[in-house]
Amino acid sequence: MSDRQLATRVRQRFAADGVDVTPAAVVSALRAEPGAAVLGDTTVLRLANRVHDDLVGAGPLSSLLADPEVTDLLVNGGQVWVDRGRGLQRAPMSLGGPEEVRRLAQRLAAACGRRLDDGCPYADARLPDGTRLHAVLPPVATSGPYLSLRTFRQRPFTLGELVDHGTVPASVAPLLAALVAARLAYLVTGGTGSGKTTLLNTLLGLVPPTERIVLVEDAAELRPVHPHVVGLQARTANVEGAGSVGLSDLVRQALRMRPDRLVVGECRGAEVVDLLGALNTGHDGGAGTLHANTPADVPARLEALGLLGGLPRAALHAQVTAALQVLLQVRRATGGRVLEAVCLLLPAGRERLVTAVPAWRRGHGPGPGASALAQLFVQRGVPVPPVLAGLDAGS
């Protein structure tokens, strides 16, 4: 009997018996199979790992998800693509036919407590190890099923590691540290997969240990290295359409939890109004992320989200002026992600509409907003980083 046939028989036995799939149980089941006695310990353990992954894990995708360099894993029907920070590349493996991919997608969704079938052909969930899962079944997925998996780094980068990776210039690292020390409110902005959560995780790790961080997220992604972090995660409705808890509700609950730093993992809806209101009521040093292709797009993006919360344009800009001070723009680049610009949000013109004024830009050094940002540091008793004074214009 081949290894493949042996693994198939053991999988079928567990499916028929309905017993708990533990590593020890899988090894015992393999040993009990006819012909398994001639297998060595190494072979048995390898087959046991394969069977266990097929029954409760990510199956043949497990080895790719375990690769620390893999950030995204995409399945298009039977094709597998991976991103190791250098763009998408085809993985030399096949998952079989559409039915096998469908079973894998449904098993992963079920492990997260999500329904995935013809009645609900898509699911967005988080695996137990933190990996983010999105799955879509045919006929919605025209040549699917499609799977999108974004891996989760167990230990956030330190600021020094971001410098070593080229994400943050060495001369700008003190500026980011000063931003946190001065308790300035900031948004990390950028496109999808540009490294917003990575940078925010790192900066939250710089918050003094005497302060309490309260995280509000749609899906729990932020895990800063800090001794006092509590998290709130939104909840989708159940199959009856009841029980949902949105980000706006969670922001209001977070305000009752004595936060020193209130953080919204990603502003994508009406919760931006609650966040701005919270930051205007004495909660300095708050933070969040926002999808925006350039800093200049941020005011319009905030306007759109503010309208969802019933906040008129003029009121939204007034709130932003009082609540937020800094934007950190990140982008994908060849070989990784980089900090592109540090901008101030300043009112301009007769209508006092907020604009993003660069204080520092990659390849250009200090910008028009450098002096205003330096003044904010002075007002808050934090030494002005040398990069704002143009002492390292080549950064």
List keywords for this structure.
nine-stranded mixed β-sheet; 3 domains; Rossmann fold; alpha/beta; 395 residues; disordered C terminus; Beta-Lactamase; 33% helix; single chain; elongated
Structural features, described:
By secondary structure, this protein is an alpha/beta fold. The chain has 3 domains: 56 residues, no CATH class; 91 residues, Beta-Lactamase (2-Layer Sandwich); 231 residues, Rossmann fold (3-Layer(aba) Sandwich), CATH 3.40.50. The chain contains 13 helices and 15 strands. Helix 1 packs across helix 3 and helix 2 packs across helix 3. The strands form 2 sheets. Strands 9-8-10-11-7-12-13-14-15 form a 9-stranded mixed β-sheet, with helices on both faces. Strands 3-2-1-6-5-4 form a 6-stranded antiparallel β-sheet, covered by helices on one side.
